[in-house]
Amino acid sequence: QEAAKYEKKVMVLDFVTPTPLGNSWGLGGTCVNVGCIPKKLMHQAALLGQALQDSRKFGWQFAEGVKHDWMTMTESVQNYIGSLNWGYRVALREKKVTYENAYGEFVGPHTIKATNKRGVEKLYTAERFLIATGERPRYLGIPGDKEYCISSDDLFSLPYCPGKTLVVGASYVALECAGFLAGLGLDVTVMVRSILLRGFDQDMANKIGEYMEEHGIRFIREFVPIKVEQIEEGTPGRLKVTAKSTKGNEIIEGEYNTVLVAIGRDACTRKIGLDKVGVKINEKTGKIPVNDEEQTNVPYIYAIGDILQDKLELTPVAIQAGRLLVKRLYAGGTSKCDYVNVPTTVFTPLEYGACGYSEEAAVEKFGEENIEVYHSHFWPLEWTVPSRDNNKCYAKIICNIRDNERVIGFHVLGPSAGEVTQGFAAAIKCGLTKEQLDSTIGIHPVCAEV
Amino acid sequence: MGWEEKQVRGYPEFVQTAQRYHGRPIFALFCGDKDAEGRSWCPDCVTAEPVVRKELHNMPEESVFIYCLVGDRAYWKDPNNEFRKNLKLTGVPTLLKYGTPQKLVEEECFKAELVRMLFTED
User: Fold this and answer.
1) Contacts of A49 (CB under 8 A, 6+ apart)
2) Residue A384 has pLDDT above 80, yes or no
3) Which CATH architecture has domain A351-439?
4) Domain A138-263 has CATH 3.40.50.150
5) How far, in Å, CA of A168 to CA of A193, rounded?
6) H/E element, A34
């Protein structure tokens, strides 16, 4: 849309290869259809369940038995997503961007072949190309995975309640999904191969895990599934999962209605003909290395989003990179996308917001003697009356002593962590120091005053 | 068979008609009432109607086109009227595909391209 503003002739090719179970979706990419949007809505559904419980202590009276209906929630969520898909169609049309629901692949210099779902092929040429094909969930590669397991691509539109669920993985996708499924009242187990939330501050990751465990989510650590078999067909059916220890020969078995695989995502770069135009990709990960102007090794081909090597996999980052790129190409802009100090939030039952360095990364980069960590537990006022945990919410900042005690890492674990973190991200971008933070008077009574 | 048109006035008649054709694609255009001379109190509706009518042949086979007059200006301005409450309409004219989140509101209805897109999207 940005390029069309500058009177360029623009075409968008968007195509969703159906999941192994046949699922597909509309225009908007992962975030809108099978990522952030449905995830946050379902997380909210779970939070509301908790709020209903708390409300009794605040005087609300209602009969016993508050139950959750999966279909009602899913229909509402999908309806909202449908309106977004439609909104994008209208917006593209109004801005005169040509849209084709077709699978694009390079066939030669400046040339792309688009194949629609009926198999009809068309060729297009263009001056420049922007690749933003994103990623798709990785499967385990064990017997029964594609036939019986689901991924996040299927979860948000599942036409039946998943029931007793095994989540395989310890990524934020795995923990967020496990979190809201348990919040909706389902029996949830998480099978973890090694650590939780690789790449995130491990101190915070462990606190998140502890909180989830204390709230009824079972964790099976240091095991990986080796086989998934179907005991009984159904919606949901019954599945038997066999798993092996990563530390020996122990084998365990478990029965579940649904197995959700969330062990990672792979870039969609292998089957789009990049070799035909000479675009280099990292053979191992499939990611595309680009310079700081999002340009690949082929000058007229650019890339943004989750497929970039060594860059953050976040929707707002991709959007910002895209907009700035177009401004640079067609409107004389000079700003490059700033990938440093990008805030992020993990929407586990106890939300975690972060901006900047994790404690481990800070120690590695600056040396333990040069950083100072300030931390504090806090008890949200809203949790006091219903007697919810009084020592779980936690905040810490990491400062660089050598640089005026500049705040280089911000981490908070508590309700509305995302909302809290956003403001601090702006402050960190301005070079916030500990002294400035201390001299900022807090708002009372809110969690953020900590 | 092509498509057919039903003209209704007011919310209950609209719902009754939509339910009768459950199972077929239903498109509905909501406009303000027309006076004795056939002119609507809603100027945007006057502009949109011919645009929409010109594109009707693009609707899929078996479609039902419901042309619905919502009421007079005072009824429409009431924030609690049934169309606003139950169908979540925010303005007139509104052209929508019943049972889906696909709709065009106000000036969007003036654009033949968008109307065509609504009728032919799947």
Assistant:
1) A66, A68, A183, A184, A185
2) no
3) 2-Layer Sandwich (3.30)
4) no
5) 9
6) helix A29-34
Tell me the average pLDDT across A291-300: 91
Average pLDDT (A38-57) is: 91
Residue to test with chain A: of B102, B114, B115, B116, most A Cβ within 10 A: B102
Q: Which residues contact A321 (CB under 8 A, 6 or more apart)?
A: A294, A304, A305, A337
Nearest to A410 by CA among A426, A421, A397: A397
ipTM of the complex, rounded to two decimals: 0.78
Q: Hey, where are the domains in chain B?
A: 4-105
Contact flag A86-B114 (C-beta cutoff 8 Å) = no
Enter the tokens of residue A423. Answer: 């403001």
Q: Which of A14, A76, A88, A90 to mutate to test the interface with B (most CBs of B within 10 A)?
A: A90
Chain A residue at shortest CA distance from B109: A90
Nearest-Cα distance to chain A for B102, in Å, is 6
B81 touches A: beta carbon within 8 Å = no
Residues of A with CB under 8 A from a CB of B: 79-80, 82-83, 85-86, 89-90, 93-94
Considering only residues A383 and A424, tell me which one the structure prediction assigns the higher pLDDT: A424
Q: Compute the average pLDDT of residues A270-277.
A: 90
What pLDDT, on the 0 to 100 scale, is given for residue A355?
93
Contact call for residues A190 and A218 (beta carbons, < 8 A): yes
Nearest-CB residue to A82 (from B100, B108, B114): B100
Q: Does B103 touch chain A (CB under 8 A)?
A: yes
Question: Cβ(B59)–Cβ(B27) under 8 Å?
Answer: yes
- pLDDT score recorded for residue A450: 62
Are B114 and A90 an interchain contact pair (Cβ–Cβ within 8 Å)?
Answer: yes
Q: Is B97 an 8 Å CB contact of chain A?
A: no
Lowest mean pLDDT among A39-53, A329-343, B44-58, B61-75: A329-343
Q: Which CATH number fits domain A2-137+266-331: 3.50.50.60, 3.40.50.720, 3.30.56.10, 3.40.50.1820?
A: 3.50.50.60
Is B101 in Cβ contact with A89 (below 8 Å)?
A: no
Portion of chain B with pLDDT greater than 70, in percent = 98
DSSP B34: B
Q: Is A169 annotated as a binding residue?
A: yes
CATH class of the domain defined by B4-105? alpha beta
